[in-house]
Design brief:
The structure holds 2 protein chains of 2 kinds.
Chain A: E1 24-29, E2 32-33, E3 37-39, E4 45-46, H1 48-60, E5 63-68, H2 74-79, E6 85-91, H3 94-99, E7 100-116, E8 130-134, H4 138-146, E9 151-155, H5 158-166, E10 172-176, H6 177-185, E11 192-210, H7 214-229, H8 232-240
Parallel strand pairs in A: 1-5, 1-6, 8-9, 8-10
Antiparallel strand pairs in A: 2-3, 3-4, 6-11, 7-10, 7-11
Chain B: H1 5-10, H2 12-44, H3 49-64, H4 67-77, H5 82-85, H6 90-93, H7 96-122, H8 125-133, H9 138-168, H10 180-191, H11 194-223, H12 225-228
Helix pairs in contact in B: 2-3, 2-7, 2-10, 2-11, 3-7, 4-7, 7-9, 8-9, 9-11, 10-11
The chains are: A alpha/beta, B mainly alpha.
């Protein structure tokens, strides 16, 4: 379905007059997670994550490429050196910390259910329902850990989960609040709404690097601090959300 | 990197559950596909255009598009139409298991029909003529000479097709089924140990295809018993 085409998003740092060879950072992302990372109609990789990666590259005067990779193989691909850093809206979890190292968070996510408008769905009575989430996400893990008496269906992409919510195969979806927010604004989500309070509200999202790659991790941390301080971060934030997602 | 095979052992029961669903999908889709393929293959080998036209188009469509596209069309595509969601078929099409089974059966039927057509056309002319000379009717020739002969000719190619469907069944994981591949990917999402888990899943696939190969060998041997010795 999805072309795993190599997409060179931008070559930023090679400005005229910069004669010395710039650092090269290869980023990986999923490319199927709007509004954070997605491929637009013209085949270009766009989204919040992509803008952040590009801003970090400008800050570091590095030369950057961004490639896409299916979500459930994205950590193995990082560790297999297909790229050097993951900027893919990845939550910091203890399990992932066994496999990769994380930079400082670049936004704070919440998990919140979405179901049909007017349905009596409530996050406190899930018994017997069919709930969906994307495979290998903290939403999927949350469902598996907290919900024992409902059926849980896991999808390869968030889009496929939304398709099954709108077809009625699912009673509700648990996903990242901002991703849900973006979908609810779209035509496909117009008959659905948030249900209840977020079930988890302090999910820190960061860039992942290979274990022990402290040089790159610290460089990215420094650049992240700088773009937050100089207003670049806010500009990117405001392009996608009318509220602050940093804290 | 080093392998941690304990992880694979821990999740063996889960993988076994997945393997069970894989076998179910392959066996049932293979049988339904076979049942559909017999009339299709016979009609396809006809010399009359109005008889072979329909099967030709069916086979052309199902052989010419990827199984994954067909699965998506049936599972995600049909469900987007309110008419489908309100039809009597919805309880059936709502379930990923039935969608996978239906799609795989329709897909493999096209291939089996084509295998059967080749086999029917490969039945030696002389044997058919012998039937005609004995005054057999068309249906009797088909039932007693052409089909038994064609089945023996088609069997090795059919066993190949079943093994291809075994591997094709991995695509059912894309419509949320936790068959062997889906289960392996879900376990990997928890453990981040793709090499170990995929090795274990691969071993299951090998074991299943070994059993399929042996069963077909046995069947071939059984069907060729009249050719071995008489006495």
């Amino acid at each position: 379905m999805r072309l795993k085409a190599l997409i060179v998003a931008t070559v930023m740092a090679a400005v005229a007059g910069n004669a010395y060879a710039a650092d090269i950072i290869r980023f990986g992302t999923e490319g199927a997670y709007p509004p954070f990372n997605q491929i637009d109609a013209s085949g270009k990789l766009t989204g919040f994550d992509v803008d952040i990666a590009n801003a970090l590259c400008v800050q570091l005067k590095a030369e950057c490429t961004i490639v896409t990779q299916d979500w459930d193989g994205i950590i193995p691909a990082l560790n297999g050196k297909k790229f050097d850093a993951l900027v893919a809206s990845m939550s910091i979890t203890p399990e992932r910390q066994q496999a990769v190292d994380f930079t400082d968070p670049y936004y704070t996510n919440k998990l919140q259910f979405v179901a049909a408008k007017g349905s009596d769905f409530s996050p406190v009575k899930l018994k017997g329902l069919v709930l969906g989430a994307q495979r290998a996400t903290i939403a999927g893990t949350w469902l598996e850990e907290h919900v024992k008496d409902a059926e849980i269906k896991l999808y390869d992409t968030q889009d496929n989960a939304y398709l099954d919510l709108s077809s009625g195969r699912l009673d509700a979806i648990l996903a990242d609040k901002f991703v849900n927010w973006d979908w609810l604004k779209s035509d496909g989500g117009k008959d659905f709404e948030f249900k209840g309070e977020p079930v988890f509200d302090n999910d820190k999202v960061a860039i992942a690097v290979r274990k022990g790659d402290d040089a790159l991790r610290q460089k990215l941390n420094g650049a992240l601090k700088a773009i937050v301080a100089n207003g670049t971060y806010k500009k990117i934030n405001d392009k996608y959300f009318p509220f602050n997602i940093y804290q | 990197m080093s392998l941690d095979l304990d992880v694979a052992v821990t999740y063996l029961p889960k993988l076994l559950d997945g393997a069970r669903l894989t076998v179910q999908l392959v066996v049932f889709s293979g049988l339904i596909g076979l049942i559909l393929a017999v009339p299709l293959g016979i009609a396809r080998s006809s010399e009359r255009l109005w008889v072979k036209g329909g099967p030709w188009a069916y086979i052309f469509f199902f052989r010419g598009t990827p199984l994954m596209v067909q699965l998506f069309l049936v599972y995600y595509g049909l469900s987007q139409f309110p008419a489908v969601r309100h039809s009597a078929l919805w309880p059936f099409l709502r379930d990923p298991y039935w969608c996978a089974l239906l799609t795989m059966a329709l897909h493999t039927a096209a291939y089996i029909a084509e295998i059967l057509r080749g086999a029917i056309q490969a039945v030696p002319r002389g044997e058919v003529e012998a039937g005609v000379a004995l005054g057999m009717k068309h249906g009797v020739i088909l039932r007693r000479i052409v089909l038994p002969r064609a089945v023996r000719i088609a069997l090795p190619a059919y066993s190949n097709e079943v093994i291809l469907m075994l591997k094709g069944s991995a695509l059912a994981s894309t419509i949320t089924l936790l068959e062997l591949t889906g289960m392996a990917r879900t376990i990997i999402a928890k453990t981040y140990m793709p090499v170990e888990i995929f090795l274990a899943a691969g071993a299951f696939y090998l074991a299943i295809s070994y059993v399929i190969v042996r069963l077909f060998k046995l069947l071939e041997w059984h069907l060729a018993r009249h050719l071995r010795h008489r006495g």
